[in-house]
Structure formats: C-alpha cells, structure tokens
Amino acid sequence: MFNENSGKIYACREKSKTCGYKCCSFSDNYIVMYPGEYEMTELKKDHLQIIENNYWGGKKVICTTRCFDEDYKPIDCQSYPYFPFVDMDNNIKIQIGTKCPLTKNELLNHKEHFLKNWEFLLSEQIIEWIKHINLIGYKTIEDWPNEYNNCD
Q1: Is 108 domain-assigned?
Q2: pLDDT under 50 in the chain at which residues?
Q3: Is residue 3 part of a domain?
Q4: Which domain holds residue 96?
Q5: pLDDT averaged over every residue in the chain
Q6: Which residue, 78, 103, 70, 69, is CA-closest to 24?
Q7: CB 98 within 8 A of CB 147
Q8: Is residue 95 in a domain?
Q9: Structural domains counted in the chain
Q10: From the CB of residue 60, how many other CB atoms can be counted at a distance below 10 Å?
C-alpha cells in the first residue's frame, strides 16, 4: 500500500517557491480521510485538526502545520492533486485539483502512484463513501482505467 515516500512529487520542490504550497493552505478547503483511516495509523497526528468527526463515516481535517517524516500524511494528501469520483452512472472517474500548478508531464509518475494505491483501497464501502464526498476546487479529467466502471 502507501509507504514513507507516498505522495512525494519531486517537481513540487521546484514549484513550491512559486505556488507557496497551495495544496497545504486551508482557507476554504479541507482534507478528507476515508472511514477508519485516522484510527488505523500509529504515526503522529498532532498536526491534524478534526473539523468534522463523522463525514460519511470518515473525517474532515485540516493541517495546523506542514507534515514531517514522523507525521501521518492522509491519503487525500498523498494522492493530491488526484482523487477518485463516482459519477451519476456509477462510473469511477479521476478528478484533479485545480490549485496544483504542475504540468501533466510533471504529474505523470504521480498519477500512476495514485491509481495503484487507490486501486488497492477501492472496496464497496470506500466506493460508497467516495459517492458522498464533496471536494472543493476539483474537475473531472478522465475515466478510471479498469473494471471498476460501472460499480453498481
């Protein structure tokens, strides 16, 4: 599943000076944690402030500081700028956060990482949870590339 390098996008080191880590600013958005995610980790979570304790079985959180190696980095953050989406026809699609300034080429390896790790997580319970998630500042970019479409 996810490992200590999960979610690290090396192009972010170069772009962070121009974007100012927009993905970590929480003026009007939040991080979603899938059901059981917060409880399952043994890594430090002091930097995570819960703003909604039961968001469709998961949690809404914000970071009070940037993550360090010993801190838990939520899967939403590890996956950013990508997140799964279930459309009206129950097809899983891929969304991308519109704040991220990285190019398609800069994100190519990260997209493969995202697909592999979410594929591992997808279950009926998680797909049902995804159906209820309302993310701010995302747009749908393409279909999920496997058998999960149509997930009735």
Answers
A1: yes
A2: 1, 3-4
A3: no
A4: 11-143
A5: 85
A6: 78
A7: no
A8: yes
A9: 1
A10: 19
